[in-house]
Amino acid sequence: MDTTPEHLSESERVARLRLYRSENVGPVAFRQLLARFRTGTVALEALPALAKRGGRRRKLTVCPAAEAERELEALDAAGGWMVHRGEAGFPPLLSMVEDAPPLLSGLGHPHLLTRPAIGIVGARECSLNGRRLAERFGRDLAAAGYAVVSGMAKGIDAAAHAGALEGGTVAVLAGGVDIIYPRENTGLYHDIRERGALVSEMPMGLIGQARHFPRRNRIISGLSLGILVVEARQRSGSLITARLAGEHGREVFALPGSPLDPRARGPNDLIRKGAALVESPEEIITLLRDLPGTYAVEEPGDPFSDGIVAAPEESDLAPARAAITQALSPTPIGVDDLVRHLGLPVPIVVTVLLEMDLAGTVERLPGNRVAALMEGE
Amino acid sequence: MDTTPEHLSESERVARLRLYRSENVGPVAFRQLLARFRTGTVALEALPALAKRGGRRRKLTVCPAAEAERELEALDAAGGWMVHRGEAGFPPLLSMVEDAPPLLSGLGHPHLLTRPAIGIVGARECSLNGRRLAERFGRDLAAAGYAVVSGMAKGIDAAAHAGALEGGTVAVLAGGVDIIYPRENTGLYHDIRERGALVSEMPMGLIGQARHFPRRNRIISGLSLGILVVEARQRSGSLITARLAGEHGREVFALPGSPLDPRARGPNDLIRKGAALVESPEEIITLLRDLPGTYAVEEPGDPFSDGIVAAPEESDLAPARAAITQALSPTPIGVDDLVRHLGLPVPIVVTVLLEMDLAGTVERLPGNRVAALMEGE
């Protein structure tokens, strides 16, 4: 792999933005398209044909150049910036995540994205004690040189950001970076914009919705060496972030609490499953310092160079397409399992899934899993 | 080993009681004396000579027969009972502990001593929530068929006993079984006497003191399949009981708590060190049920038959005595380390240490360690 950061031309940056804003292009499809076509410009041209081969009947909506340029102008007018995966300013740990966003829009201080980071997440309806703890951990971890990452939700998230404002904090938003949500965090939003950083993979103006939260959570986890869960009920978003952190090979820290407090269920359960019980910020700092060097970060350079490059022959793809279509169901299955089950070569399966993904007939799920999307969905 | 319970004659029971009530005869010395001399009667006779060989100048005070008989009469008058290690009614798990008491006095229901047991310990100055939890765990574990063991201290201990009164509870006292301590537990004492069991290795009338607490704690741990710590500050007696449980190969359970609560420090720290985090009694029940059969309990029968029986020759002992005396200091050392360091046969070292123990020139410490006692101590 190339070890120098990429210098993308303006036209390639626009092409990549258009590619990511095109219908059915998720982070995994984006990665595979770049691996195969090398540039956004070429991938963009290939897009409609690929979708058609994946079973698409309606024409795939490719993001028009004018729309991408409008987004970049609006971002620029707001004093914001965009950083692409492979560029020097892209967060190196996030780049290692399989479904990392290929680009991030941001407001505020971009240098915070390349600082070692710790995520702090927890309940919206937190206790006063939980809030105090989140603020203290935010403050002390930021003072120790870590960027404190969270999702700017109310409750624990907001407290962690507030505590870390001075030392350095990064808010990952589910909507566009110009959209303040929730409204009660308006003051905090402006504080972070001035002293920290706000980032999102979504276009300016997009209003974040509940279905965007898991995508936001994977960025929080992807940015972070470890995730601290402060208060969380069972089956809450914070636990999903913690699970993602585990899947991303990151540390999971949890603040314990009384069995009588339902908000302690989440962290207690994480501890039971192997998360590190912590009572003070110093413990996290010590635990991270004592980690073996497993976080040797991917060097900047072309991050798309190690994918599948050669396109398989159509004569190989046609029978595979039928077998894969039959094998898939709405119940998610691992791509590895699919490969094993069908006994087909990996590049064939990956190519067919990419085409179906673009066609909107399969859905990508975390953990390299896929599911069939039923007609009309 | 003999697998039928022992039937001790009345005179042997009195001899064993006298032996254990004699000066400098601790549980380890008692065990070694029985292993060597087979009966309390013979060991009792040998006692003064052994102490003298260990460097004793004043004559060792052997418990007079009349004193032992007075103790048994008082116990009998109170409606109590005494059970010796090796007898069918002696708690089987306790029998497996190296420094198990060779006998227990008791009031109440002796059958509770042979039930599978769980210890619940914690802070005297507990929170109301801690008290509620201890009571609930006590009640539910006792209802599930476990004897709930504790130390009848105020706070967590008292709450655990109170919760388990109906199902079955065992209070281990630091003083004699007839001594109510602390006074505020007078009602609880009478309740346990009536519906549970009160036990002690100490003679009737002895007022327990702080220095007796560690000995009491080892009995709580020794009786129990596992120890649950509810609330405990750092460096508290409850943590000593938990440490003993670890040394005894028993389970350690801990109820987590907020980092803001100093009474959670103890349990949280235990969890950090590997104790099982639990939030409900059901979890303990499940964890104990799923244990591999490591608690195959020592069958009743002569528990003293596997010790050192043959007495070494005095010609071997004399030089060993000098070497051991020189090697020991007030800083505790493991008997195994001592054996390794000196390169002497185990029976020689054990015999010399037994004599020194009886002479009052060495002190036995938990974990099979010994320390020199300086003159005048």
Automatic annotation (TrEMBL), chains A, B:
Pfam family membership, one: DprA_N
Residues annotated as transmembrane: none
InterPro entries given in the database record: DprA, DprA_WH, DrpA_SLOG, WH-like_DNA-bd_sf
Gene Ontology BP terms: DNA-mediated transformation
Domain annotation DprA winged helix: ranges: 310-368
Domain of life per record: Bacteria
Classification lineage: Bacteria, Pseudomonadati, Pseudomonadota, Alphaproteobacteria, Rhodospirillales
Family: Belongs to the DprA/Smf family.
Positions of the Smf/DprA SLOG domain: 82-287
Listed name of the protein: DNA-processing protein DprA
Protein species of origin: Marivibrio halodurans
